[in-house]
Each structure stands twice: as C-alpha cells, then as structure tokens.
Design goal:
The chain has 786 residues and is mostly helical. It has 3 domains: 3-129 and 302-344, no CATH class; 134-293, no CATH class; 380-763, no CATH class. Helix content is 65%, strand content 5%. The strands form 3 sheets. Strands 3-5-4 form a 3-stranded antiparallel β-sheet, with helices on one face. A 3-stranded antiparallel β-sheet has the order 7-6-8. Strand 4 and strand 5 form a beta hairpin. The two termini are 56 Å apart.
Length: 786
C-alpha cells in the first residue's frame, strides 16, 4: 500500500484537517516533476538541433548554457546552500518555521518556493495543534493526580477506619503519579506537573524520603482474597484532611441519581465513606483513566504519522529534484516540538503504572488488556456463512412464491384468511431483517467514507460489529423466518396434516421465543457484548427521562419510531396466542378492548420516549432547539393517535380529514428537521449550494436524491388514510410494503445523520468523549466563583 493511502487510512478521522496535507504537497511535487520532464524534453531537442548544425534560437542557447553550468556544480556538496530555515517566536513562546529557498533564480524555482512555503505552513499547523493537545492532557493529568489522591484517602478511610483516625498519619499511594511529588505548595497550585519534566530534573526536585515515608502498609481490597493487596506509603497529613475538601459529583447517570438531582438543590453530595460509594468512585475513575490513556495513544499516533509524512515527502522532493535538502529540513522537524517532545511518552508510562497499581491489583497483563484492547479481526467463516444463509433465503423465498402460485392460494377465500391471520405474525421477522440489512449497508458506507461510527456510538474497541457480522445475523434470521413460513404453508395446504393445523400455528410463536432467547442469552455466544449493549440501550430508552441521553440511546429510539408495525406485531402475538385466537383459525383481536388499548399505546411509546428525552435535555442545557425537537415528536404522537383512531373507525369522514391535517403538519415538521437539522443540508450560504460546506460523498447528486426520496417516503402514509383502490393487491400487503419503505427511509436517514454528526466532531477536533470526574474540590469551586 502506498504511503498516501496508508496515511489517510490510519489518521485520526476527527483530526483529519489537523494532519499534514500530504496530498497537497504531492500535487506541488507532481507539478514540479512535470515541469522537469518538459524541460528535459526541450533540452534533448536542443541537443539534437545542435548536433545537425542548425543554429538554435537564443532562448535555447541560454538554456543549454544554464544546464551546462548547473551540471558542473552537481558534484559539489551544496546541501546547506539549497534552503535556509529560520525559527521565529510568536505569542506564548511558540516557535514558527520559515524556509528560504536559495535557488529561486533557477528554472522551476518558483514551484519549489511554493513547495517549501506550503511545507512550512503544514509544519507550523501540525506543531501548534500537537502542542495545544499536549497542554490539554498535561492539565488533565494534574486533575487526575488530585482525583487519585482523594481516591487513596477514601480507600484508607473505608478499609481501615479505626487504625487511620484523625490522630494517625495518612498514607500515599505507591503507584507512579502522573504529576510530581513537589513541595506541598506546588502540589496545591498544580501549576507544573512533574510527569512532564525530564527524569534528571525530577530526581533533583524530589525531596529525599524520610523514615516515616518509606514504610509500606498493606491493605486488602474490598471483595478480594488474601493475595490481593494495595501497597500504600505514609502521607504527611491525615486522609480525613484530604476528604474534608472533597465532594462527590452527582452525574445523574441512573434513575436514583436523577431523582436525587431533581429534589436536591446541589448536584454534589457529601462522602459517606461506604464500600458502595468507594466501588462507584473506582468504576468512574477507571473509565476516566482508560479514556485518558486513549487520548495519549491518539496523540502519540498523531506525532508518529506526521513525522513519517514529513520524511516521506522530503524523500520524494529529493528524488525529483536531486537536491540534498531533505537532511536539513528533517533536522528542523526532528528538533521541533512534534519531533522532540517526550511528554506524551512519559505520561503513557505513568498512566500505565498508576492504572495497573490501582485498578488491576498490580496485574500488568490484566491492566494492559483494559488499556489496550485488541482490535477485532475479520473471520472467513463469517463471510462464508453470510453467503450461505443469503443463498438459502433466496431459495426459500422462491419456494414460498411457487407454492402459493401452485395452490392458487391468493384466489381463494382461504388465502385471504391466511394473509389476515398468519402473514402479520411472520412479517415481524421481515421488519427486523430489513432493518438489520439497512444497518449493515450503513456500516459499510460509514467505513468507506471514514465515518467514525464506533466513536459516536461509544462502542468498546474490539466489540463493535462490522457489516459482515450484521449481514450474517440478518440472513440467519431470514432463513429461520422463511423456513418457518414454508413449513407452516406446507402443513396448511397438505390434507394429510389436517390434525396438525392447530399445532402448525404455533410455529411463529416458537420462532419468536427462539429469537428472544438468543437475544437475552447470558452465555458468551453470538456476539454477547453487542447483544447486551443493545439491551442496555433499549432499557435506557424505556427508562427515559431518568437516564441521560447518549448517542446510541437517541439513535435506537429514532430507529424504533420506524418500527411501528413491528411493535404492533408484538401486540398481535399477545392477543393471538394469549387469548387463544390461534385455535379458532381466525383473528378477532380488534373485538377485545384490551387489544385496542394496547394498539394505541404501543404506537405512541417510541415517540413518547424521544419526547421525554428532548424535555430532559432542554431542562439540562436550556437550549430551545431541544424544545422544538420535542414539539416535533409531540405533533407526531397526535398524528399517530388520530390515524390509529381513523383506522379503527372506518367510514368516518371527519376522522379522515382530521388524520390528514395532523399527519400533514407532523410530516412537514419531520421533513424539515430531517434535512435541515439532522442532515445539515439546505444551506443557502454554503459553498456547495443547498448542501453543506463539508461533504463526504463526492457526488452531490446523492444528497439531492436522498432529500427527494426522504420526502416521497415520508408521504407514504397517505395510502393508509386515503386508501387508493388497488384491487390486485391485498390490504395487508400494502400496509406491509409501506412499513418496509419506512424502514428503508430510516436506513437512508441513518447514514446522513451520522455523517453530519461526524463532521461536527471533525469541525471541533472532538476525537474522544469526556468522562466526568467523580470528585469535586471546594477550592476549585471557590476559584470558579471568583
């Protein structure tokens, strides 16, 4: 693989614009090479003309003279005479580099001047970005040191409450700190972290330990065996004095914490020195350390990739021009902050030591598994079985169609009854399968256009499913559903199986139980981590607004709003099998008041969850945009209720008019929100007219086609209200097709929605999520107030 493609593939997607513009520099070198080739062709022509004795023009003679004079100097060591790099100092002691090309008077010199000007701009850009990010992680390391100090004090208080009372000495954690053991005044100010200075300076600044500071004390971790101990050293101060300045942040991440936050004026609570509180703090700090370590890894990778890019581009320049400027310029690059700074490496080592000591019982292997999870590897078996199940699904589908045509099932009254009773039960699996296929297609295109969907959804590295795995699951589900439908159809049509007719209708129920059993199976089979991630997100959606909204939560809730017919199928299963309708070979569910009530409620639930989420975000962020989004979902709730009422009360013209008005208002609001807010399109002042400034898909017609298709598919509900007469198509088939079209529309929406989210992250260089710290210090709050 060429370096340019590898560089683009391995760069941090959210920092793409902060990386060196390798392709831009290559274009300048390509222009320089083409100029050199044209010049070489002219020189050859001049030599041929001179060989036959024809007097060349003055321009050509001068060119030969210039070339001959340049050839005389090729053997000289002119490396230091090609470029002169000056180091300039800007605001905040920042260094900037400006290169002067000393051969500008030669032919093609203007292009080389442009190249070095662009090269300086990229070096200054990369250097500035890297230094800013390093400063951010250094400040975060200071905060983490204070958090660890409070955690160690809390551990001491919880594990040895009597031995380490107010009159006894405190203790310090033996793990390597992220910041230094300076004087107490320096620690309190937190101005300069020790972990970012050289080792020699650290040894000079660190005070020699006294006798009371080197006696280790072993304290058992709660819930551990006798071999798992925590090594700590003596503090100069009582741990209680540290804890007196500390409060616990209430992040409102659970229903209980949300309720407490609502009924309390402050979102902070006093320490209770309990084991449950200690466990909760340790879990949050563990997540903070893993995220911090991930940031350091990204910064180290950023530095390595850009240094490699500068080296590669200078080698290309040297190859094209035969000038020896690469060594001089790379010396400047290596001495720049990007190439010479080792703060990130030091912080990585210290973060590893601290994490292993405090969060993995000094077990390095277990600690590194958490800090550096292995990337997921593609398996050939997944591709094989995906193709196998896909072929089986197509074969089963053809067999079902041929079976129905051979028996003329749709021309008989029995066929209509079958469509009314059995087909809705199996259509549930069809809705799920088509949704999973659309999700697999979305993943494929997200990867192709480098949309970091794993980061947006918060998937743990190595556990996210690729499009092959999702396609395998969807094709496997399709085989189960189509196989059950064919078996059910065969037994229904076979006269010899008359005694099994009641039993055959239990086939779809058995399939549903099997799918639910696999979904909630606690064993480590069939992508358990992804299944549990889905279950947690679903539970958080149902518990809205007691849980804070996260990206996977709102994304799943939006997907559920397009699965109204699938949710109604669940209600149909309850009625059909719970009330014994299957044994009478006819569906009379609408005659039951409980079923009609559930028929209303189940449709409203997805939109209601999104409405409550919007209300919570409005209360937390005070952003009117969330209130407008909530009104959009509320209008959809009203429209869905009116349409459902019209469906149950046939022949009522007033209900039809009301359903049309409410649905039109809700559809208009939803279309505007889809295209303008979620997709970020229809920007009149954009450089891409009626689109965004940034587009991942190069063909602009794709965006316009998606907008038109979104409008058309949004209006598909009109068929359900107006009921256009299609005599050749059964009504159940029409409603199923419309439900499939809504799922397809949601799949298209999903791609552009995440593309817009990804571009927003790119615009803000947001490559990692912020994890809230568990402790809050009183002195920090006072500084904020000041």
């Amino acid at each position: 693989m060429k370096f340019g493609k590898e560089f683009k593939k391995k760069m941090v997607p959210e920092w793409a614009e902060a990386h060196m513009d390798y392709n831009g520099l290559k274009r300048i070198l390509r222009e320089l090479r083409e100029y050199k080739q044209r010049k070489h062709s002219r020189d050859l022509l001049d030599h041929k003309i001179a060989a036959v004795g024809a007097p060349p023009p003055n321009r050509i003679i001068s060119g030969i003279e210039l070339q001959s004079s340049s050839l005389q100097n090729t053997n000289e060591d002119i490396e230091d005479q090609v470029i002169d790099v000056n180091t300039l100092h800007g605001d905040g002691c920042r260094q900037f580099y400006k290169t002067k090309f000393l051969r500008q008077s030669e032919e093609g010199g203007e292009i080389e001047v442009t190249f070095f000007k662009k090269l300086d701009e990229e070096l200054n850009k990369v250097n500035t970005f890297y230094k800013d990010k390093v400063e951010e992680v250094k400040q975060e390391a200071n905060h983490l040191d204070k958090q660890m100090e409070a955690l160690v004090a809390l551990r001491i208080k919880v594990k040895k409450p009597k031995q380490y009372g107010s009159n006894s000495k405190g203790h310090r954690n033996s793990a390597v700190p992220l910041t230094s053991n300076k004087s107490s005044a320096a620690d309190a100010s937190g101005n300069e972290p020790m972990g970012l200075t050289s080792e020699s300076k650290q040894h000079q600044r660190e005070p020699s330990p006294g006798p009371s500071e080197v006696n280790p004390t072993q304290i058992k971790n709660p819930g551990s065996d006798d071999r798992e101990v925590l090594n700590i050293y003596d503090y100069r101060e009582d741990p209680l004095e540290v804890l007196e300045h500390v409060k616990i942040k209430n992040t409102l991440e659970s229903p209980i914490s949300t309720i407490k936050g609502v009924f309390k004026d402050s979102r902070e609570e006093e320490l209770s020195f309990g084991k449950e509180e200690l466990k909760r703090v340790e879990e949050r700090l563990r997540a903070v350390f893993i995220q911090f370590y991930h940031k350091l890894q990204l910064l180290k990778h950023y530095s390595f990739m850009n240094l490699s890019a500068f080296s590669k581009i200078m080698k290309k320049y040297q190859k094209i021009t035969s000038r020896g400027a690469a060594r001089s310029y790379m010396l400047i690059v290596d001495n720049s902050y990007l190439g010479s700074s080792d703060e990130v490496t030091n912080l990585l080592e210290r973060a590893e030591a601290t994490f292993i000591q405090n969060f993995s019982n000094s077990n390095r292997r277990e600690g590194m598994k958490s800090l550096r999870p292995k990337a997921k590897r593609e398996k050939h078996a997944v591709t094989f079985f995906s193709g196998f199940f896909c072929g089986c699904s197509i074969a089963l589908m053809v067999a079902i169609i041929l079976r129905m045509e051979a028996r003329k099932l749709m021309d008989k009254e029995k066929g209509a009854q079958y469509m009314k009773n059995i087909f809705p039960l199996y259509s549930l699996f069809g809705y799920i399968t088509i949704h999973m296929l659309m999700y697999a297609a979305d993943i494929y295109f997200w990867r192709r256009y480098r949309v970091n969907y794993a980061f947006i959804f918060g998937f743990k590295k190595g556990t996210e499913l690729g499009y092959r795995e999702v396609f395998l699951l969807s094709s496997g589900l399709a085989v189960l559903a189509l196989g059950g439908l064919l078996a059910n159809l065969h037994l229904d049509m076979d006269s010899s199986a008359e005694i099994y007719k009641t039993l055959t209708e239990l086939v779809p129920l058995g399939l549903l139980i099997l799918v639910l059993a696999i979904t909630f199976c606690p064993f480590n089979i069939i992508y358990r981590s992804s299944r549990f991630f889905f279950i947690r997100c679903l539970f958080r959606c149902i518990g809205a607004p007691l849980y804070p909204e996260t990206s996977p939560d709102f994304f799943l809730a939006d997907q559920l709003t397009s699965q109204v017919q699938a949710l109604r199928s669940f209600v149909l299963y309850i009625c059909y099998y719970g009330l014994g309708e299957y044994s009478r070979r006819q569906s009379k569910c609408h005659s039951h008041g409980v079923y009609n009530t559930l028929y209303f409620i189940i449709v409203v639930i997805p939109f209601w969850m999104r409405f409550l989420k919007c209300i919570r975000r409005f209360c937390e962020e005070k952003d009117v945009k969330h209130m407008r989004n909530g009104l959009k979902y509320f209008s959809t709730i009203v429209a869905v209720i009116i349409r459902t009422a019209y469906e149950l009360k046939k022949g009522k013209t007033s209900w039809m008019v009301l359903a049309l008005i409410c649905s039109a208002v809700a559809t208009t609001m939803n279309m505007y929100w889809d295209i303008v807010i979620d997709w970020g399109l229809l920007r009149t002042k954009s450089k891409n007219k009626y689109l965004r400034d940034r587009l991942l898909v190069s063909h602009k017609i794709i965006y316009f086609a998606a907008m038109v298709l979104n409008v058309v598919l949004r209006l598909a509900w009109m068929q359900l209200v107006l009921e256009f007469k299609l005599t050749t198509v059964h009504k159940m088939t029409i409603s199923t097709i419309i439900a499939f079209l809504e799922v397809i529309r949601r799949g298209i929406w999903s791609f552009f929605r995440l593309e817009n989210e990804h571009l927003n992250n790119v615009g803000e260089y947001r490559a990692f999520k912020s994890v809230p710290l568990p402790f809050s210090y009183y002195d920090e709050d006072a500084e904020k107030d000041d």
